[in-house]
Design goal:
By secondary structure, the chain is mainly alpha-helical. The protein has 15 helices and 2 strands. The longest helix is centred in the C-terminal third of the chain and has 42 residues, at 328-369.
C-alpha cells in the first residue's frame, strides 16, 4: 500500500501547484508588504528564482533514488537507525508546524472574515473531517480530485485577476526601491519560507506514487514554478490595488482584494465565491501535509498500510490546531523567530547535507573501483 505508483505526471504537477499556493495566497502578501512595502513584488520575483533552485535541489536528490521516499533516502544514506530517527523527528515537527498551523489559519479566516459567530472548533472539525476522508481515499483519489478541481481553480483565479485589474493604481508601486535593496532580502526569505521550503514534505511520499519516477524532479519543479508565479501575481495586485500600507495591515490581503471587485455597481460582493480558490488550495495543502506524516510513520514503523493512522492523527490534528497559536503575539513570534530557522533546517539544510553525502559516497566508490597501476618488474632493464 505504501509503494503504489498511481498518479500521473500531470496530477503530480497539479498537486504541487496547489500545495505551493496553499495558505501562502492568504498570508504571504501582508508579511512581504510589511517588510518591503511597494517593492514586495520585486522580492517575490527574487524569491521565485532562489526557491526554484531549492526545489531543484530536492528534485535532484530524489532523482538519485527513484521510487524511494525521503524516509528511504535517509535510511540509505544515514543508516537504518539514524535514518529512522531523523525521519521521525522530521515527521513529528512537520505535523506541528505544517497541517496544524494551516488548519488553524482556516478556522481563523472563517471566524474573522465570513462566519464570526461560529465557534472555531466547529469549523476546524468540519474541515478536518473532509481532510481525513481524502487521506483514507488515498493519493490516487487525491490526484484525480485535484485534476478535476484544477480547471475551476484556474477559472476563478483568472476571473479574480481580470475583474480586479480595473482597480489598479500604478502610483501605488512608486517609488521603486525607495529604501534600497536592504528590505528586499527578508521579504524574499519570507516568500521562500512559505512557498518553497515546505516542499520537503512532498518528498516524504510523492516520489513513490509517481508512475514515471524518472520524471518526478522535472514536474516537481514545474508545479512549483506555476504555483509561485500565481502567488507573485496576487502579491503584485495587492500592492497595485490596495497599496503597501493597507496590504501590510490586512490579515488576509487577497480576500480584501476580492472585496474591491465592483463592475458598474452590479458585479460586486463576490468575495465568498472567490474564497473557493483558497478553500481548494488550503484543502490540498493540509491533506498532502497529513499524507506525508502518515506515510512517514507507516514506513518508519514498518506498517503495511497507513490508513490505521488516519483517525488518531486526525484527532491530534484537531486538538493541536486549536491550541497551536494561543494568541496573536505568540503567532507573530512563531512566524518570525521559530518557523524560519526550522524550515531552513528541514527544507534546505537537510536535503543539501543528504545530497553532499550521496556525492561523497559516490566519489569514494569510484576511487575504490579504480584499478591499481601494475607493479614495476625489477628484472626489466
Amino acid at each position: 500500500m505504501l509503494n503504489e505508483t498511481n498518479i500521473s505526471l500531470r496530477q503530480l504537477t497539479i498537486l504541487t501547484v496547489l500545495f505551493t499556493v496553499g495558505s501562502a495566497i492568504l498570508i504571504v502578501p501582508s508579511g512581504m508588504a510589511a517588510a518591503a512595502k511597494q517593492d514586495a513584488w520585486i522580492a517575490a520575483l527574487i524569491g521565485v528564482a532562489a526557491g526554484l533552485l531549492i526545489v531543484w535541489l530536492m528534485g535532484t536528490l530524489s532523482g538519485y533514488y527513484p521510487q524511494m521516499t525521503l524516509v528511504g533516502i535517509l535510511e540509505t544514506l544515514l543508516g537504518k537507525w539514524m535514518g529512522k530517527a531523523v525521519a521521525l523527528i522530521l515527521a513529528l515537527t512537520l505535523f506541528l508546524a505544517g497541517p496544524a498551523t494551516v488548519l488553524h489559519d482556516v478556522g481563523d479566516f472563517m471566524t474573522t472574515q465570513m462566519m464570526p459567530e461560529t465557534p472555531i472548533q466547529a469549523l476546524v472539525i468540519l474541515f478536518a473531517t473532509v481532510v481525513l476522508m481524502g487521506m483514507r481515499a488515498g493519493i490516487e483519489v487525491l490526484g484525480r480530485s485535484a485534476e478535476a478541481l484544477f480547471p475551476w481553480f484556474v477559472i476563478l483565479y483568472v476571473s479574480l485577476v481580470t475583474l480586479i485589474s480595473f482597480k489598479i493604481d500604478p502610483h501605488n508601486i512608486s517609488p521603486v526601491l525607495e529604501s534600497g535593496l536592504a528590505p528586499i532580502w527578508p521579504a524574499a526569505l519570507s516568500f521562500i519560507n512559505v512557498a518553497f521550503l515546505p516542499h520537503i514534505a512532498l518528498l516524504l511520499f510523492l516520489p513513490s506514487a509517481a508512475n514515471r519516477p524518472e520524471q518526478f524532479g522535472k514536474n516537481f519543479v514545474l508545479g512549483s514554478l506555476i504555483g509561485s508565479l500565481l502567488l507573485v501575481i496576487i502579491i503584485t495586485l495587492s500592492i497595485f490595488v490596495l497599496g503597501p500600507e493597507i496590504t501590510a495591515r490586512s490579515l488576509y490581503p487577497s480576500y480584501s482584494l476580492a472585496k474591491k471587485i465592483d463592475i458598474a455597481h452590479f458585479l460586486q460582493r463576490i468575495e465568498v465565491i472567490m474564497a473557493t480558490i483558497w478553500f481548494i488550495s488550503l484543502y490540498f495543502r493540509i491533506t498532502l501535509y497529513m499524507c506525508a506524516v502518515a506515510y512517514s510513520f507507516a514506513q518508519i514503523f514498518n506498517l503495511k498500510d497507513y490508513r490505521p493512522l488516519v483517525l488518531p492523527l486526525g484527532m491530534l490534528l484537531v486538538a493541536t490546531s486549536i491550541v497551536v497559536y494561543p494568541n496573536i503575539p505568540f503567532k507573530q513570534t512563531w512566524d518570525t523567530e521559530t518557523w524560519t530557522p526550522y524550515i531552513l533546517t528541514a527544507g534546505l539544510l537537510l536535503p543539501a547535507v543528504l545530497l553532499a553525502i550521496h556525492l561523497l559516497r559516490k566519489m569514494i566508490g569510484k576511487m575504490k573501483r579504480r584499478p591499481n597501476p601494475p607493479a614495476p618488474n625489477p628484472q626489466e632493464p
